[in-house]
Amino acid sequence: MAKYWKRLGLEQELWQRGLSVVAGVDEAGCGPLAGPVAAAAVVFPCAWLQTGLCTKFRGLNDSKQLTEEERDKFYALLTTHPEIRFAIATVEVEMIDQINIYQAAHRAMSLALEQLQPAPHHVLVDGRPVKSLRFPHTSVIKGDCKSYSIAAASVLAKVTRDRLMVDYDRQYPGYGFACHKGYATPQHLEAITRLGPCAIHRRSFSPFRPVEMELFPEETAVPLGAITQTHESVGMDQRLAQPQ
Asked: What does the pLDDT read at residue 203?
């Protein structure tokens, strides 16, 4: 795991090459049996090339390595900082079942990135390359532990999805969505056996309908050594309202 003072290194390298709009992107919710998949994109100010990371973001990390309280704190800081641009998108259960969870996660990433204004010059993606992404990008294995902007995106995606699952817990009582957020815990599996699936369960998932799918299709990305500044501009305001 990179030390905190190294976790802005990928962004700094790109900024030094004149790519001032660098977005980190990550998803949350590929594993659960229920609910949408969420993705977020975060752009830090390129002025941080000289000043370094704003000190209030020290400790920002992969959302899975943070407590719920820490995630909520960083979510509030990220979404209110005047120099940080961000966007959040979700893909719902019906589409997940139609195109599979990994394609749905990639779609959510693209939807988040396309809301950023101005459009990213380059994207840092957590995990493997995403062939469908329309922006030049670099994939970073375990990127949410190596890049602050990817970590920031992981926090926004995770908090957004968790809050949606708390809302779903009120709509579909008895499943415990507020506690396990749709993951296949013993409590959740017992509730499915007792109550059957509800409207937000992913019917393409085991135990509803076992399927075989390629988890990580082979895709290619633009390496850092072959970065191009060519990009297409997209519309829509990047700032989304906090989930209610």
From this structure: 96
Decide if 29 contacts 38 (C-beta within 8 A): yes
Flag whether 225 is in a domain. Answer: no
The alpha carbon of 217 is separated from its chain's Cα centroid by a whole number of angstroms, namely 19
Residue 28 lies in a domain: yes
CATH number at residue 94: 3.30.420.10
Closest to 181 (Cα-Cα) out of 29, 5, 16 = 29
198 found inside a domain: no
What is the Cα–Cα distance from 234 to 236, expressed in whole angstroms?
A: 7
Q: Note the pTM of the prediction, 2 decimals.
A: 0.84
Domain ranges, residue 108: 4-164
Summarised one tens digit per residue, pLDDT across range 67-98 is: 999 999 999 999 999 999 999 999 999 999 99
Cis peptide bond N-terminal to 207, omega within 30: yes
Give domain status of residue 229, yes or no: no
Q: Sheet holding 22-28: strands in order across?
A: 85-91, 37-43, 22-28, 122-126, 137-140
23 Cβ contact list (under 8 Å, min separation 6): 41, 42, 43, 113, 116, 120, 122, 123, 124, 135, 149, 153
Q: What is the pLDDT of residues 6-18, one digit of tens each?
A: 789 999 999 999 9
Cis bond upstream, residue 82 (ω within 30): no
> How many CB atoms neighbour CB 15 within 10 A?
22
Spell out a b/e string for 78-94, using b for 16 or more CB atoms within 10 Å of the CB, else e: bbebeebbbbbbbbebe
Q: Name the domain count of the chain.
A: 1
